[in-house]
Each structure stands twice: as structure tokens, then as C-alpha cells.
Write a structure and sequence with these properties.
mainly alpha; disordered C terminus
Length: about 350
């Protein structure tokens, strides 16, 4: 049986409920499993799919800039701290200044990738793209010391905005393009489940093993900043694992990531990312198995080895994200003019 868009919408509703239930019961474990097993396969298959569609940019080699920025981010995030980080006995102020420098550097690179993707989507001529990036650079000078700007680009854009906000936008666009009531329902359900997991905070006695804590230490800053965004404070790392607030945040994060990956795979029959030659598909499978093996042997090794690939898939998706929001604007205009049903196609006069 061929799956229709309506079938996919109902499938996504089921996947949402399964993801939410799993995240509610085992939030830390579900996130770590999804990130290590589903994540690498998602990166590899999406990059392959984007490559076939020329990354949705207007220039044949535009994506090279995004790849360069992805590797540059790896250098600043992994290589620079390894060789230039202050010693353990360095003054606290020195450590704080270095941390601020690293955060600003990461924000600058991600900002440039995000704005370059907009230029690659909105303009066709190289001259127009260069002028746009010059203007974006001027804004960068003004914003570089604004903490909220740094936090958005370093902490939220490549994580929760990517896996939750952009996923919601794609779902809404699909529902609007197909005028699908199940699609619209799945979009609203995504928002509803996310809100429920964030705001329902029953008292819990969380038992999080030392092994899980060790694996999750790469990500715990996301929980701390998300708590601050919601007007709370996780005073110490234990609160991220044991407090009602900390567990609620983790349930939302685990749901957002696990469903983001499952949503991608549920659309296989529509976007046909698997329709590639046997050699490329074999390479994807082999690289995925190697990635999962690295995570299984040592989570830290897997995280570092897959760091660049994870950010590359985020950067390379930016042009598609911009196109999604542009298309949403067009669909909203169409609905405002013609209602939920599409404008009828005029037949030529006989």
C-alpha cells in the first residue's frame, strides 16, 4: 500500500505519542540513545538528500561556505580549548574571559552560517550575497557583546530551535500545502505535548546512574540555560538530574530530539532520501554502524568524532529552513485570500 500524506500525518501522531511516553519515563536514557543511534543516521541521510537537491541554494557552490564554517566551528570548539585553554591553577578571571571568548567565537560562526544561508536563498548574484553578508557583519559588530544574542546562536539555534521549532515549521508547512486536517492536528499536538512536558512537574525521585550523568555532561548546559529562559535556576548539576524542574526539562529535550529524528524517517516515502545509488547507501550504512560503535565503546569518543557531522547537517539545512519560512508566508497569504481550500485552477477558454 502506498502511503499518502494523510497516512504520514497519522503515523507522526503515533510517533509523537510514543516519543513522549518514552521521554516521560526515561528522559536521560531516551535522549542519549536517540542522539547516539538515530542521530548519526539522520545526519548522514539528510546530508545525502540535501546534496541531491543542491542544498536548496541559488548557487552551485554555495554550500562550500557552510561546510567551511562547520569545520571552523569544530576547530574553535574542540581544537582551540585543547591547546589554548587556561591551566587548572589559572586565575578565575582568566578562565571566565576564555569561556566568554569561546562562546562569542561559536556565536559568530553559527551566526555567519545562518545569515549566509539566508543570502544563498534570497539572492542569485554573488554581488548581492556579498553585500548582504557585509550588512550582516555590521550587525554582528553591534551584537557580539549582547549575551542573549550569544546564547541564542551558541545554545538554542543548533539544538532546540533546530529539533523543535524548525520541525514544527516543516510540519505546519506540510499541513498548509496539503490542506491536511490530520497534518494540522499533528502540528498542534507537537506544541501541546512540548508544553505539557515543560510545565507538568510532579515531584519525582529520579535515579540517574553515574554512567548516564557522565555521558550527559556534554549537554547539561542546555538544561541550565533552558531553565533560565523559563525563569528558573538550576543551582547545581544535581538539580538537573533530581529536581522536578530538571526532570521536566529533560523530558522535553528527550521528546524534541527523539521525535525530530523519527519525524525525518517517517517521511521516507515522500521525500525519498533512500533513493540513491547502492554505493552511496552502503557507505551511509557503514558510516552509521561505525558511529554507533564509537558511541557504544566510549560515548565521549563518539560525541567528539561526530561533532562536525552533527553541526554540518545543521548548517547545511539552514537554506531549507529559510525556504520553509518563506513558503509559510506564501501559504498564509494564500489561505487569507482564498480560505483553507486551494484557489481553483482556471481552465483555458474553449
Amino acid at each position: 500500500m502506498k502511503l499518502t500524506t494523510a497516512h504520514i500525518d497519522w503515523l507522526n501522531i503515533a510517533l509523537m505519542l510514543v516519543s513522549a511516553a518514552a521521554a516521560f519515563v526515561l528522559p536521560f536514557e531516551v535522549f542519549l540513545f536517540s542522539y547516539a543511534v538515530l542521530g548519526p543516521l539522520h545526519y548522514l541521510t539528510e546530508i545525502s538528500w540535501l546534496h541531491e537537491r543542491k542544498y536548496f541554494t541559488t548557487g552551485a557552490r554555495d554550500a562550500v561556505v557552510l561546510v567551511f564554517l562547520g569545520f571552523l566551528l569544530f576547530g574553535f570548539s574542540v581544537v582551540v580549548p585543547r591547546f589554548l585553554a587556561p591551566a587548572e591553577n589559572a586565575p578565575l578571571q582568566t578562565k571566565q574571559e576564555f569561556g566568554q571568548f569561546m562562546n562569542q567565537s561559536g556565536a559568530v560562526i553559527i551566526y555567519l552560517a545562518f545569515m549566509a544561508a539566508l543570502a544563498m536563498t534570497a539572492f542569485r548574484s554573488l554581488k548581492s550575497k556579498c553585500w548582504f553578508m557585509l550588512i550582516a557583519g555590521l550587525f554582528l559588530v553591534a551584537l557580539i557583546n549582547v549575551q542573549t544574542w550569544v546564547l541564542f546562536f551558541v545554545v538554542f539555534l543548533p539544538t532546540l530551535v533546530h529539533v523543535f521549532v524548525f520541525t514544527a515549521a516543516f510540519m505546519l508547512l506540510g499541513a498548509m500545502k496539503n490542506r491536511s486536517i490530520p497534518g494540522l492536528l499533528s502540528f498542534l499536538l507537537l506544541l501541546g505535548i512540548g508544553a505539557f512536558l515543560l510545565w507538568y512537574r510532579p515531584d519525582v525521585i529520579a535515579i540517574v546512574s553515574n554512567e548516564v550523568r557522565h555521558h550527559y555532561h556534554f549537554f547539561v548546559e542546555l538544561n541550565r540555560w533552558l531553565a533560565r529562559l523559563l525563569g528558573h535556576e538550576l543551582a547545581n548539576p544535581d538539580q538537573a538530574y533530581q529536581s522536578a524542574m530538571g526532570v521536566a526539562l529533560m523530558r522535553f529535550i528527550a521528546f524534541a530530539y527523539s521525535y525530530h529524528y523519527l519525524n525525518w524517517f517517517s517521511k521516507t516515502s515522500i521525500i525519498k532520501w533512500h533513493k540513491v545509488d547502492a554505493l552511496r547507501l552502503s557507505v551511509i550504512v557503514v558510516l552509521w554502524l561505525v558511529a554507533v560503535l564509537l558511541y557504544w565503546i566510549d560515548y565521549t569518543t563518539g560525541f567528539i568524532a561526530l561533532y562536525t557531522l552533527s553541526f554540518l547537517h545543521v548548517f547545511l539545512e539552514f537554506p531549507l529552513n529559510w525556504r520553509c519560512f518563506m513558503d509559510l508566508g506564501r501559504e498564509l497569504r494564500s489561505i487569507s485570500l482564498h480560505g483553507w481550500t486551494r484557489e481553483p485552477i482556471l481552465k483555458p477558454a474553449s
